[in-house]
Write a structure and sequence with these properties.
The chain is of the alpha/beta class. It has 14 helices and 14 strands. InterPro entries: Tobamovirus_resist_UPF0261, UPF0261, UPF0261_C, UPF0261_N.
Length: 404
Amino acid sequence: MKNVIVVGTFDTKGHEFKFIKDLIEKQGLTTTTVNCGVIGEPLFEPDISSEKVASAGGSTLAELNQKHDRGLGIDVMMSGAGKIVKDLFDEGKVDGVISLGGSAGTTIGTYVMRKLPVGVPKIMVSTVASGDTRPYVGEKDITMMYSVVDISGINSISNHILANAANGIAGMVSFEVPELKEEKTLLAASMFGVTTPCVTMAREYLENKGYEVLVFHATGAGGMAMESLIEAGFIKGVLDATTTEWCDEVAGGVFSAGPTRLEAAAKAGIPQVVSVGALDMVNFGAIDTVPEKYKNRNLYKHNASVTLMRTTVEECSEMGKIIAGKLNMATGPVALFIPLKGVSAIDVEGAPFYGPEEDAELFKQLRENIEDHVELIESDTDINNEAFALAMAKKLISMMEAQK
């Protein structure tokens, strides 16, 4: 019988958790309830007590109550619950997980969910789900459901919201995921709107050669998701055409994938073909969200919600050194492709971000800092040129075949 983990603070939201627990069990599923409440007694007896959760998190309930530190309590309980649920998953006892809460409950619940692999059903009913959910979702497939009203009792609104969530997780868990007729070797590719022609041509070529290509949108979370799947062993080769997330990491944009971007493939030793796609742009939100210090920079309104900022010579220099360092970490075959006539659709002659000086500095630092085991391939084209795209795809295939 399929089992759903119900995790949360049963001392403050016991009625609501009991409501979703009972609905899930009415669907013929079992539940394992994990109590992360610190202060009060739970409304119902949980399967895993808060004392056990605190212990797994490296403390005790008595210590947490004595210190009266809400932040510490959240840290301990989410750490403990994460360890417990991950252990249950490793034992084959987790088919899905559901939680609900405000900012604290969401922090705990989604931390637990991020400990589980992609593909395991995860639903978080949250009062903060209508805002920026990236800190909670990260690179995992967490379904965030806005609670509309606060999670405080069962009323004419929350009755529907919580029932939908409970029935949703029950449906996710109960129905089988169809198997693909043919399992193919999985490849990963990174793409942005301004590198779409390049990656589309490369993807289609690779798929015609029998590979399955997962394309990740280089929005920070996309790069993190790609790195996570590489680390998990799903991905066997990478066409990392769009390394733009380094612009945001260096200059403080909104699409950073963190300082370890480009490390997963290098450490895994899988073939990687890397290029400099969209290293001409830093991403911000609407025009009025651009930091004051950048107001006089070369800005481009991509749409009402996204403003792009052209990277400078200095930023390109820094990124060239960083990316070279990441490629030098490679324990497997790696090739760097440089398009000499533009790194994006708007970095070509006559376009808003055309920057021959900036690009030249980027390319200079890459050339000077990569080590001998990094193959360098330069092309007198822009990144979206068909020949450039196909050359990257063919190089990746040759690397893949050489490893067989």
